[in-house]
Amino acid sequence: MISRDLAPLLLETLSYSPATALIGPRQVGKTTLALEAAKASGRPFVYLDLESEQDRSKLAQAELYLSDHLDKLVILDEVHRAPGLFPILRGLIDRNRREGRRAGQYLLLGSASLDLLKQSGESLAGRIAYLELAPFNLHEAENFSADQLWVRGGFPESLLAVSDARSLRWRQDFIRTYLERDIPQFGPRIAAETLRRFWGMLAHHQGGLLNTAQFARNLGVDGKTAAAYLDLMVDLLLVRRLHPWHANLGKRLVKSPKVYVRDSGLVHALLAIPDKETLLAHPVIGQSWEGFVIENLLNSAPEGVQGYFYRSSGGAEIDLLLAWPNAELWAIEIKRSLNPKLERGFHSACQDLNPIRKWVIYPGSDTYRSAEDIRVMPLGAAITELRLAR
Hints:
Layout: H1 7-14, E1 19-23, H2 30-41, E2 45-49, H3 53-58, H4 62-67, E3 73-77, H5 85-98, E4 106-110, H6 113-123, E5 128-132, H7 146-152, H8 156-159, H9 164-186, H10 192-204, E6 208-209, H11 212-219, H12 223-235, E7 239-242, E8 258-261, H13 264-270, H14 276-280, H15 285-300, E9 306-311, E10 317-323, E11 329-334, H16 344-353, E12 357-361, E13 368-371, E14 374-377, H17 379-388
Parallel strand pairs: 1-4, 1-5, 2-3, 3-4, 11-12, 12-14
Antiparallel strand pairs: 6-8, 7-8, 9-10, 10-11, 13-14
């Protein structure tokens, strides 16, 4: 059992919020974490999987069934399958409040952000808290090397597979299942092969600036359709749009976001990269490493920290800019080299923004200063510092 960084926060949220929504991609470990949290809370609980016909039948008269369990934590897995539940949950939460039970009533698990947030936002405003569970990060997978986590990705079944070949097969099956069974639940019917090509394009374009028109031409669809495909992948928590930092600096700044397939293992499966040796010879290696580092850092950063990139028309550039709630900025450059060299663009960007910390993340094992105010460090050390800043 690999402990999850989110577990303490989930327990804390259950202690004060009437309903908690735990969202994340399929197979990321939401059910396991939810059941562990329920046991750790010491409260009686009921678990219902709404993809199970037997469990859905229990909710044929949902208000009657749930009224019998007002004194328990009710876990509703894949709750997007029953959108009609939300108005009922609202009434039951308010009823519980009147009877003095104010927290830890419902834990809702879902595989997509848009569907779940929209439904619950309409009916449970002021009664629900949201948490996102990502694939394993390097701190959680401390018994694995950074390279193993990078190649296989952070989905539990992929990372824990007995071999690279078995891991790749799991990821290929995961992609196929998403395309053929899961994605049609969340949006208009899209041909699986079309969406497979689009997902593959995103992997080839890993870390590149978003060019919706180019994607549309390659797919043979219009720009709005390509944009809708991207929105769907973002809402399914499979793709990240990293937005550019905007500030009134008197400079022309890039305004298009960068796009990343969030799990590095899925990038490699989409590009048919079976192992580390093949990856090291593939043109995507730098962009894959960059996306892997960005996901790990953003998933380890304290609540409220936002990630951006910075690029000006004059060549000033920062791979990842962490914006803290107190307006501090941390500049992070990502290099896949044991002897990382900083370009002039990074220094120019730091002059523009004046970040309080400047880091270079590289695949080595030592931490050292390359300049008075610039630290070069491995990813694990950076994650540790971010966690200590919580």
